[in-house]
Amino acid sequence: MLNPKSPGLRSRRRSSQTITPPSGLFTSSSSIVERARRPILLAIGLLVVLGTVAYTTTVSSNISAPNTHVINEYKDRISQMELKVKELEEADLGKRALIERLNDDVVQQLMTKGDTDKKAQELAKKRERDIHEQAEKKCKTESDKEKSKLMSDLDKLKDKLRAVADKIPSVQKENPAFLTLVTNNFWKQGIVLVQSARDHGVKHPFIIMAVDPDGMSPSNPAFVKLPAEAEAAFARLNAEVRYIEPVAVPAGAEFENPRWSIAWNKLRAWEFTEFTRLVFLDSDMMVRQDITEMLSFPEFTSAPGQDEPCETHHGINGGVLIFSPNKTVYNELIAFSQDVPSSKWRQAEQELLGHFYMTFYRNKFHLISGLYNISLRSCQCLYPIVLSDHVKIIHFYSGPKPWDHTAQIWADPNLPDLEAPCIAEIILQWYNTLERGLTQ
Fold first, then answer.
1. What do you get for the CA distance between the two ends of the chain, in Å?
2. What is the C-alpha to C-alpha distance for residues 4 and 373, in angstroms, rounded to an integer?
3. How far is 436 from 429, CA to CA, in rounded Å?
4. Which residues contact 193 (CB under 8 A, 6 or more apart)?
């Protein structure tokens, strides 16, 4: 039987204190006290939500209204200014037409008086040229001055408009996505994750962050990409593969398991600012229900970790992370990670993220139901529930793991690793999902 405490397994402990799991599926329905508390808690929760929505709406309107008013005012003034410039140009043409008509009248008079005198005709033509040149010069000078001033004022107004607009954050169109992390020797797990998500109705983009297990940069000629079979399978599943630069582990960090340095690269996802919301899922997961609703969960959200089967604690599990990418937050995370505490980040990025958000963004820290992060070992005590429609995600973060044996070996009912009847059933589902992901 596999030892769930062995260093090769990612069973990360955070606290010996246990709490009741978040879902009602984990509690006894016979408790009278519990049944009495639920309506009260639901009513309180509803009041809190309504109050939060009202407050958010008020704050949002108070912030955006003045800026919108200023921008509209500048736009109106610019429109008026541009109209005045157009009127001036039209008036300029009118002045020129008037000058031409006056010139014609003067010349005609002169020509009439001197029609028998050749010298008078020459003087009339000269007078015509002089009047025309003087009038045009004066008109041009006056109109150029006025137009120049108007155009200068117009440019200043446009500069002010841009300055105000730059201070207002642009409203980015909603662009959420799911993502996971794989390596060139640990990618079949990612195929199962994406295939199982697609099987259950997840249609949003799926980003595959691919890193070198030894921390090599993709720009290095020795960098080994995913096998062609993996890239082709991800492409069929409409999942985008991104080869990312590794995130350096801070000096002084001492992970309990050296392999967790790969998981440290999850931090790179905070730089994917083209997405408005990201749901990170560890690649060693299998989706059992539609999880599209996770994209609407608040920032920062994680699933509670498990120390033992059916026990949860207040810490997070780094396999489920919901957040909005932000380069400022990424830089803060890196700076915070370099200030290595006495714990030495032994739980890797999981411990870093828990400390960081609880320290600087406590008001954004949320935990969701454990049904989004059920360990396979929960089959020991939750056999009917693990196989039910209530479970959203199975997480193989502790043994047994499907890839420990082949599908044929797992099909043997006498396999000693089978601690509960549902383990083999779920693992064989994992292999069926892998086969479809590689062949469809």
1. 34
2. 17
3. 11
4. 180, 281, 282, 283, 284, 285, 286, 287
Pair type for strands 301-306 and 374-375: unpaired
Burial (0-12, 13-18, 19+ Cβ within 10 Å), 42: exposed
H or E segment to which residue 306 belongs: strand 301-306
Number of H helices, E strands in the chain: 10, 10
Mapped to the 3 state alphabet, what secondary structure does 9-24 carry? CCCCCCCCCCECCCCH
Residues whose CB is less than 8 angstroms from the CB of residue 181 and which lie 6 or more positions away in sequence, other chains included:
209, 210, 211, 262, 263, 265, 266, 280, 282, 283
Tokens found for residue 133: 């040149």
Cα–Cα distance, 208 to 187 (Å, whole number): 10
Look up residue 156 and give its amino acid.
Answer: K
Helix (H) or strand (E) holding 428: helix 421-439
Residues sharing a CB contact under 8 Å with residue 47, sequence separation 6 or more, in sequence order: none
Tokens for 85, please give them: 């410039």
Report the SS3 class of residue 96: helix
Amino acid 214 reads: D
- The stretches in the chain having pLDDT less than 50 are 1-11, 13-36, 41, 46, 48-50, 52-66, 114, 307
pLDDT at residue 20, as a whole number:
38
**DSSP characters for 197-211?**
HHHTT--S-EEEEEE
- With the C-alpha atoms ordered 168, 279, 205, 190, is the resulting torsion angle positive or negative? positive
Predicted structure pTM score: 0.62
In 279-289, which positions are buried (b, 16+ CB within 10 angstroms) versus exposed (e)? bbbbbbbbbbb
DSSP state of 403: G
Q: If we measure between CA atoms, which residue out of 172, 173, 189 comes closest to residue 181?
A: 189
Cβ pair 179, 278 in contact under 8 A: yes
The residue assigned the tokens 């929760």 is: 45
Alpha helix stretches (DSSP H) within 25-176:
32-113, 118-167
DSSP 131-163: HHHHHHHHHHHHHHHHHHHHHHHHHHHHHHHHH
Q: Are 143 and 103 spatial neighbours (Cβ–Cβ below 8 Å)?
A: no
Instruction: Look up residue 290 and give its two tokens.
Output: 């539609």
393 bridge partner residues: 287
pLDDT in tens, 409-428: 888 877 766 666 678 888 89
HSE at residue 116, side-chain half, CA atoms within 13 A, is 0
